[in-house]
Amino acid sequence: MASDTTPSRSKSDLRRAVLEARACMSPFVLAQVNAELAEWMYRLPVDVADGEVVAAYAASGSEPGSTAILDVLVDRGFTVLLPLVPAGDPTRLQWGEYRGELELEARRWGLLEPTGPTLGPDAIHRARLVLVPALGADRTGARLGRGAGYYDRTLAAVDAPVVAVVNDAEFVDDGIEQGEYDVPVSWVLTPGSGFTAVGG
């Protein structure tokens, strides 16, 4: 995402620009990005005790993040929850526990989800920290999602800090417009700079 991002650019234009840039990333660069993001899991911005819950996501395609992030969190003794996309119209996400890459399968829209028991949408309230995918984020706490609203519906009543995970160039000073129902994030994680507190 260009650093001159302004509110005059529509969300759909921003999404298209980010997705095009990600599609051009070489496998080597993506692997490096994911390795750097995984290293930041040893320096979380909040204290998480052994056995406590971190909610995350299984990245797809050129999305930043990988199962390496999830494996580090599990190795640190945390319970890791991943989202399950329910059938039908957009609503709150359901959750399942991550138990290793071999227990993930592609489901709706090709997204990787745990194959174990399905936990209800309220499982997210157990999380001490929530890592969410994003196409962009800015220092006001605005997050650019894919537009369906699953995460905004899910995070509306969540008290835990929320972290948007993006590439370095997708984190800008401002200019990502927030709608009435958009939920801001507390932190932004980039491979180069780690966790940055955002918003008020």
Automatic annotation (TrEMBL):
GO molecular function terms noted in the UniProt entry: 5-formyltetrahydrofolate cyclo-ligase activity; ATP binding; metal ion binding
GO biological process: folic acid-containing compound biosynthetic process; tetrahydrofolate interconversion
Keyword Cytoplasm: no
Binding annotation for ATP: 11-15, 143-151
Record-linked InterPro entries: FTHF_cligase, FTHF_cligase-like_sf, NagB/RpiA_transferase-like
Entry keyword annotation includes Acetylation: no
Cofactor(s) required, per the database record: Mg(2+)
Residues annotated to bind substrate: 63
E.C. number(s) listed in UniProt: 6.3.3.2
Alphabetical keyword list: ATP-binding, Ligase, Magnesium, Metal-binding, Nucleotide-binding
Coiled-coil stretches: none
Pfam families: 5-FTHF_cyc-lig
Catalytic activity: (6S)-5-formyl-5,6,7,8-tetrahydrofolate + ATP = (6R)-5,10-methenyltetrahydrofolate + ADP + phosphate
The family this protein is said to belong to: Belongs to the 5-formyltetrahydrofolate cyclo-ligase family.
Record protein name field: 5-formyltetrahydrofolate cyclo-ligase
Organism: Gordonia sp. MP11Mi
